[in-house]
Amino acid sequence: MTWYNLSAVQLGLVVSGSLYGALIGSMLAYPFADFLGRRRELIIAAILYLAGGSLTACAPELGALLLGRPVYGLGIGLAMHGAPLYIAETCPSQIRGTLISLKELAIVLGILLGYFVGGYEIDVIGGWRYMFGFSAPIALLMGFGMWTLPPSPRWLLLRAIQGKGPLQEYKEKAIGALSKLRGRPAGDKVSEKQIEDTIISLKTAYTDEEAEGNFLEVLQGPSLKAFTIGGGLVLFQQITGQPSVLYYAGSILQSAGFSAAADAARVSVVIGIFKVS
């Protein structure tokens, strides 16, 4: 990022801009996710990826660069919420865990691809623009892919059970969506039976949710174990500082003795390979 001769503080703002955006996106996902649905949430995320990546790549000044990064981060926050939910709600239980794991693999493969692009473009004048802009066509592909997919059948039924629309109408939409996802004829009996079972399950779960509770229940009984495991995984991922190594790999390697930025950028690929493995 020598194009603007950024100071350490300015560089930090550019790097962390996507994280601030992701934080805001995650917070927005909580109140709006059930209204939008998983499919639309991911389409919006793709639009934000496209807008943020394009704005950053074409930034005429530092201000535009600092604006583009949080916009991109908003997409991260929405996608990290919507993607696992869409997978969990649309995939057969036998392969659900595998597909969610593949999503995580895709993330680290994307990091590795980013290092490859960075190593290739590092010697090009204004090459950082290509690095940021490389995300735009991928965002288009993501948006187009989600556009061709149906809404989550479970989300459609949940909206009906929450009183957001007539149950029969949403039930028919859910059957059609599930049939499309499974490659079956529209309205087949197997999909209809699965939707009936899902309605019963959701009604039971929604009735239980309506019972009053409080946050302290998270710290009691079985919830405490889940909270401890989930919170512990996040804590130990972050407390080691490994995300900072990923963000500043080039600078760290230069400080370690790789005087040329190009050499440092290319050695960063090794870090990406270890991240994948």
UniProtKB/TrEMBL annotation:
Chain segments annotated as transmembrane: 6-30, 42-65, 71-88, 100-118, 130-149
Main location per the UniProt record: membrane
Domain of life: Eukaryota
All residue ranges annotated as the Major facilitator superfamily (MFS) profile domain in the record: 1-277
Xref: Pfam families: Sugar_tr (PF00083)
Bilayer disposition of the protein: Multi-pass membrane protein
Subcellular location per the Swiss-Prot or TrEMBL entry: Membrane
Key words, A-Z: Membrane, Transmembrane, Transmembrane helix, Transport
InterPro entries to which the protein is assigned, alphabetical: MFS_dom, MFS_sugar_transport-like, MFS_Sugar_Transporter, MFS_trans_sf, Sugar_transporter_CS
One GO CC term, this protein: membrane
Family: Belongs to the major facilitator superfamily. Phosphate:H(+) symporter (TC 2.A.1.9) family.
Protein name (Swiss-Prot/TrEMBL): Major facilitator superfamily (MFS) profile domain-containing protein
Lineage of the organism: Eukaryota, Viridiplantae, Streptophyta, Embryophyta, Tracheophyta
